[in-house]
Amino acid sequence: MKNFLFIILLLAIVSVSAQDKTIHGVVTTFDSILVTGAQIKVISNKQVVTTDSLGRFIVMVDNDDKLKVFAHGFYPQKVKLNEKTKVVAVNLKLRPTEKAREYAIGYGHVKDADKLSAIAQMTNKDTDFSRYATMQELLKGRFAGVNVMNNGDIIIRGTNSIMADNSALIVIDEMIVDKSTLHSISPLNVRSINVIKDGTASIYGSRGANGVIIIETKRGGDD
After folding, report:
1. For the chain, what are the domain ranges?
2. What tens digit of pLDDT does each residue of 159-216 get?
3. Residue 179 burial (CB count, 10 A)
4. How far is residue 66's CA from residue 216's CA, in Å, rounded to a whole number?
């Protein structure tokens, strides 16, 4: 009987300690723009908190808990935790419509509207990428202010630096690549394209001074 009571007590202690785990997090969009007032819901205990002016939040969770993150104008995102998780960085994806940008700014999720305006976004959900034979043709035909030079350099008008090379930085699936890599990608295999200019590209340091082309390709299960 004593052993039985001991086991019950031990299980109760473990359960309480699991619920007392604290997770710190931050919510951004386009990697560097802070998202204020985003809602974070803890699935296990239904706790809901919102991010502060710096996009930060703190929640109490179980070891194997899940978080659901929501903000107007953005796709909701689920985050799976484990016993080693201490800090969570959530990068929300903005829905590719002008109305979504209005919601993001109007609801106060993005304080610096100029940063959001410096980003042009397009996905295969709202544009038929199959109309274009190459990535260079797609970029030149669909993004205002983007010029593709004869040597393959991509120039984003308005972001020229004092450096000798004024070509934009190209990032494909979170990897910085050479301009020649674009030739190996078919527009049919692209899920989204973001063109970033001005100070918003500062997350990439001096290499992003001329703007950044961020391309995300389709993964298994994508349409």
Report:
1. 2-92, 118-217
2. 555 555 788 889 998 889 988 898 889 999 998 888 887 656 666 777 788 888 989 8
3. 18
4. 25
The pTM (predicted TM-score) of the whole model is 0.62
Q: Contact, 213 vs 147, CB < 8 A?
A: no
* Percent of the chain clearing pLDDT 70 (strictly above): 82
Return the bridge partners of 122, or none: 193
Answer left, alpha or beta for residue 89, where phi above 0 means left and psi between -120 and 50 means alpha: beta
What's the CATH number for 118-217? 2.170.130.10
What is the tally of helices (H) and strands (E) in the chain?
A: 4, 15
Q: Which of 77-86, 96-105, 118-127, 129-138 has the lowest mean pLDDT?
A: 118-127
Could you tell me which residues are beta bridge partners of residue 194?
121, 214
Cα-based torsion angle of the residue sequence 35, 63, 220, 91 in order, rounded to the nearest 10 degrees? 10
Question: The tokens of 150 are what?
Answer: 């004869």
The CATH H-level superfamily of 2-92 is Immunoglobulins (2.60.40.10)
The pLDDT of residue 160 is 56
Paired with 201 in beta bridges are none
Q: Report the candidate in 157, 142, 144 with the shortest Cα–Cα distance to residue 190.
A: 142
Is the confidence at residue 137, as pLDDT, over 80?
yes
Q: Please, what is the average pLDDT of the chain?
A: 82
Q: Are 154 and 181 in contact (CB under 8 A)?
A: no
pLDDT at 16: 46
